[in-house]
Amino acid sequence: MFVPLAPASPTRLALFAPPYDQFVPLDLDWRSDELPPRGLAILWWLVDGHEQQNQFEWLAHRPYGVPLFVVLPPATELARAMPLLRFVNALLPRAVLPTGSIVAPRYIKQILSMPPRNLAHSVGAYLDHRGLLRTPEIRNEVEQIFRLVPSVTSISALARRMCTSRRTLGRHFAAAGLPVPSHWLQFARLLYASIHLQAERATVFRIAARVGYPDGFTMSNQMKRLIGRRPTEVRESLGWEWVVESWIRREAIAGGIDRVRFKSAVRVYLQDPASPPE
Residues 182-203, buried b or exposed e (16+ Cβ, 10 A)? Predict the structure, then answer.
């Protein structure tokens, strides 16, 4: 069913959350109950580029891990939106959509559950935007790891495929202040599994086998350890960005990410530096 925002909505913002059957009007005072927010998305109806400047600024600082859908006005009204439309890509929207019947819960739900066309590039771009990949070299190595999953399941095989040694690869990530390569590989496998849990109705056991786990229980336990959630929760909470953020949080708390070098990127998860990882 098509559930539009009321025309009188003061912000033209809406929250889209499980069970994904309606858009809930949102104002600029909204704060998430958990960090990172899980399975949420925001829709923004761009109408007037001058009057919605404060909404643009708010969206630029929205909680990490919340994908954005920008809805354009009818073609006859695009001129009013132009002052902000030209800068929309800076918000890293998941999609920019034309107004019309596609802006309905069932269609947005489908888009939210779709795998990225290029997982490695999408993750690399996201982490780059988060300020965690500070050189082209380290971004290239991170993207290679995600590109080689699920065919590679061991760090030795990963190093061979990347035409380097385990030791050299480890030095690169240590110098960058980032988690060790084996942690990246473990997470890349789980992110691949998470995306396919959401996009398909295949069993947990079948998806676990696809990414090299002996059974679904092993993958479930690994998922709980790395992102704090089980496969059933991942399947019900759409979007891959929150999965990435959950891992960033876990690594930041555990010390896998240099807290000094990346203070601005991870401080939201370190309000209590003594907090143990989940």
Answer: ebbbbbbbbbbbbbbbbeeeee
* 72-90 pLDDT per residue, tens: 999 999 999 999 999 999 9
User: Global pTM?
Assistant: 0.92
Closest of 239, 220, 216, 191 to residue 63, by C-alpha = 239
Backbone angles phi, psi at 45, to 5 degrees: -85, 105
pLDDT score, position 271? 75
3-state secondary structure 18-53: CCCCCCEEECCCCCCCCCCCCCCEEEEECCCCCCCH
Bridge partners of residue 68, in order along the sequence? 42
Higher per-residue pLDDT: 146 or 278:
146
Domains of the chain are: 13-113 (no CATH), 119-269 (1.10.10.60)
Q: Which amino acid makes up residue 121?
A: H
Among 5-9, 77-81, 209-213, whose mean pLDDT is lowest?
5-9
Per-residue CA distances from 233 to 20, 189, 224 (Å): 14, 17, 10
Is the peptide bond prior to 36 cis by the omega test (within 30 degrees of 0)? yes
Tens of pLDDT, residue by residue over 49-61, are 999 999 999 999 9
